[in-house]
Design brief:
The protein is of the alpha/beta class. The protein has a single domain (about 1-315), classed as UDP-N-acetylmuramoyl-L-alanine:D-glutamate ligase, CATH 3.40.1190. It has 10 helices and 13 strands. A 9-stranded mixed sheet has the order 5-4-1-8-9-10-11-12-13, sandwiched between helices. A 4-stranded mixed sheet has the order 3-2-6-7. β8 (about 125-135), α3 (about 140-155) and β9 (about 160-165) form a beta-alpha-beta unit. It is globular, with a radius of gyration of 18 Å.
Length: about 325
């Protein structure tokens, strides 16, 4: 049985080497295997959890690079499909500041938009957590394959984790994004969302009210990250906030993925009922997530920057001992 299986996009991130400037000014980039579900899978694996990843990549150099990178970090690669007709998608990422990013996507189509449900190995539906995001809900057949997979995993007893990862330029319209992202909420037991995504879904700045609204729609746990302003965590029985751990941050890319991978890694030993009712469990997990995200922010890129268990525990001990 797996601890965590993720499904969704795997891209080549071309991250700006020069920071503090927009994409119009950047002249050099570093190739990095990326995509939020890929990052989450790698993050969980580096934290010691048995992890699998479902995606589709081009049968070319970039697709093979993603396959090799994911495998290098211990993630089960049986769910990575190869497409002979469509290439792997690209995402250029600029870093105007340590806490802001610019994205420019080339995936029309990208192989990840063609995930085939029929090609997913059966064993990947035997997992404690099944994690998906909204990017794979934009295009068919990936959208249907994702929701079929989520439904099957839930029927098998998995806890469903959902990341409404909103990238406006990828959607045909704002209205379509709004409708599709909201429609997937009912599948989730746990939602990890950032403050900008929350404002998009609720139409105002009251994040606490947004968290409450999401809980009323089915999920039992909501985690709302607010960048440098920390995070909100809530269940139907309790809620709280967590400040970030301040380090010398250079790149916020993947910090949300690092956060949720750390949270899921801590919670993988407990039932959904325990997590939803025992405040200390979720407090511990969110604190672990804050430490993981802080460490990730100190390096450019994601996969290499995602911390291992010893690094996170060391930082938590250091902060606690101060």
């Amino acid at each position: 049985m797996f601890d965590v299986v993720t499904i969704g996009e795997a891209l080549i991130d071309l991250a700006a080497i020069e920071t503090g400037m927009s994409l119009t000014e950047v002249s050099s980039f570093k190739r990095i295997a990326g995509g939020a579900p890929a990052n989450t899978a790698i993050g969980c694996s580096k934290l010691g959890r048995k992890t699998g990843f479902i995606t589709r990549v081009g049968n070319e150099a970039f697709g093979r690079h993603i396959f090799e990178t994911v495998g290098k970090y211990g993630v089960d690669t049986a769910g990575i499909q190869f497409d002979n007709e469509v290439n792997t998608g690209l995402a250029f990422i600029g870093l105007p500041t340590a806490f802001t990013r610019e994205f420019l996507f080339y995936r029309n189509p990208g192989a990840d938009m063609r995930i085939s449900f029929e090609e997913i190995p059966e064993e990947l539906f035997d997992t404690k957590f099944f994690h998906f995001g909204s990017i794979s809900l934009i295009n068919e057949p990936a959208a249907a394959s994702t929701l079929k997979s989520v439904t099957k995993a839930k029927k098998n007893g998995s806890i469903i984790s959902y990341d409404p990862n909103y990238r406006p330029s990828l959607w045909p319209s704002e209205q379509t994004a709004f409708k599709t992202i909201w429609a997937a909420v009912e599948y989730a037991d746990i939602i990890k969302i950032n403050d900008d995504e929350m404002r998009f879904l609720i139409g105002h700045n009251d994040l606490e009210a947004g968290v409450k609204k999401l809980l009323e729609c089915g999920p039992q746990i909501v985690l709302c990250t607010k960048g440098e302003y920390g995070s909100i965590y809530a269940t139907r029985e309790y809620s709280g906030t967590k400040e970030i751990i301040k380090l010398d941050s250079v790149d916020s890319t993947g910090c949300g993925d690092s956060f949720i991978s750390a949270v899921l890694s801590v919670l993988a030993d407990y039932s959904l009922e325990q997590i939803a009712s025992e405040r200390k469990l979720l407090e511990k997990a969110v604190g672990f997530g804050a430490a993981a995200a802080a460490l990730t922010s100190t390096r450019i890129g994601v996969a290499e920057a995602l911390p291992d268990l010893d690094s996170v525990n060391s930082l938590i001990k250091k902060v606690t001992d101060v």
